Amino acid sequence: MAKKKTSKNIPLPILILISAVLLFAMYLSLSTLALAIWGDSVMGTVDSYQARLDDTDAGQNRSRTVSKGYWFVVNGKEYRGYVIYSSDEAWPSLDEGKTRSERIRYLGLFPYVNKPSALCEFDEMGEVAIIYHILSPIGYLLLLLLVIRTARRGKKKKPAARKPAAPQIVRSDTDMFCRGCGNKLTEGAAFCSACGANTQTGAPGVCTACGAKLPEGAEFCIGCGKAVNLRTPEPMEVSQAASSAPPQGGSGLVGFSDRCNSPEILAAAQKNKKSSIGCMWILVFVPLIGFPVAGLLMDDFPFGESLVIGVGIALFMLVVNLLALRKTKQPMWEGVVVNKYSKEKSEHRGGEDDNWRTYTEYNTIINTDAGKKKTIVEKDSGRHMYDYLSVGDRVRFHPRFGTYEKYDKSKDRIIYCNVCSMMNPIQNDRCKRCNNLLFK
Fold first, then answer.
1. Are 420 and 399 in contact, with CB atoms under 8 Å apart?
2. What is the C-alpha to C-alpha distance for residues 311 and 294, in angstroms, rounded to an integer?
3. How many domains are contained in the chain?
4. Most exposed of 15, 233, 273, 398 (fewest Cβ within 10 Å)?
């Protein structure tokens, strides 16, 4: 009995539930950080309080589950809040009608985001809780992206295409014996088991070479390609025709290469993309974690200031890298080099006022087929495209690698690898650094 195939797709209700839980967990940590940095405080009123003892042997701030309801007034309007958290706190429970005062933090622009000050002030939270609230949103976001990616993969999977059935040999009752030796033939046999003779020889509508059924009026067999009529010449194979043509000098170096679509190059592009994404996360995480840790360890570096600086730099690096990744998804374009020029420029290198550096900027101007103007900007010794391309050259831009390919390479002595930008002799077929195919 065949086993029933189980679906690996995540059911939609489960996907929605997992996403909602992860988003809510991200909100709790992000709102805590926002209240600690930008929140205002006001004296509120606690009107419900319960502290349930869970485990006397639990770690610090883990012995009780505290539930607390409160309200406060901002600009004449009353706001309410409710929190549940783990703590060692053990205030007496509040009977009906009794209240207790407690300081509440809220966001001035949106007071509905609020918490007791003890849960969102850096001085009260402790170092471990601060680091947790910084890192946990990142972890929840990665888990959310992983869940969404898994769900999308399940939808994209398609059943494998069935292989076309092999042509069946059709045989009549009169052909059940070999014409050469008279041996009885098994049903469907193309050759005699006794003498090895082709049992299809002379049979109408059947190929004499492979035994496949022939369509009416066919000049060649659809199974093996052999001519049905002996007077019909056999077709010449493409490889033989191609090899018989005399090679032309430099002809393979004129025109844009189709190697950009080869599986090997596409795999290299995917590898480069993964490396770029890995570098992006490193550039985001280092300031996001490093600055707050420095604020915790250094007395003269306030933690709030270090957190703001770290988050700001991390967001800046994230935006820059996302824009760079977005460029790799742009369509390929072609154009013609219309101008080249260089100019001297100066830049301040920081520190003293007279700390200036002079350098040469090299510009290569390309007009695309779409009528847009593109400029390749290089500095000093990094003037590779400026020296490689000439005015009038036709080029193609490969966004997967951010590199350029020249149309006519027949007169060049060098060729640049479009994967790693390494300069190679024109005779090479592969890059001497990354071993990928050169676009020839």
1. no
2. 13
3. 4
4. 233
pTM, rounded to two decimals = 0.46
Which residue matches tokens 């002030």?
121
In this structure, is residue 254 part of a structural domain? no
d(CA 308, CA 288): 9
DSSP state of 249: T
Please give the helix or strand (H or E) that residue 269 lies within, else none: helix 263-297
Q: Are residues 18 and 141 in the same domain?
A: yes
Residue type, 305: E
pLDDT digits (tens, 9 = 90+) for 42-86: 999 999 888 888 777 766 666 788 889 999 999 999 999 898 888
Q: What is the pLDDT of residues 377-388, one digit of tens each?
A: 998 888 899 999
DSSP run (H or E) holding 297: helix 263-297
179 and 265 part of one domain? no
Closest CA to 67 of 90, 81, 51: 51
Packing angle between helix 303-327 and helix 263-297, nearest 10 degrees?
A: 170
Say yes or no: 111 and 55 in one domain: yes
Boundaries of domain holding 302: 259-327
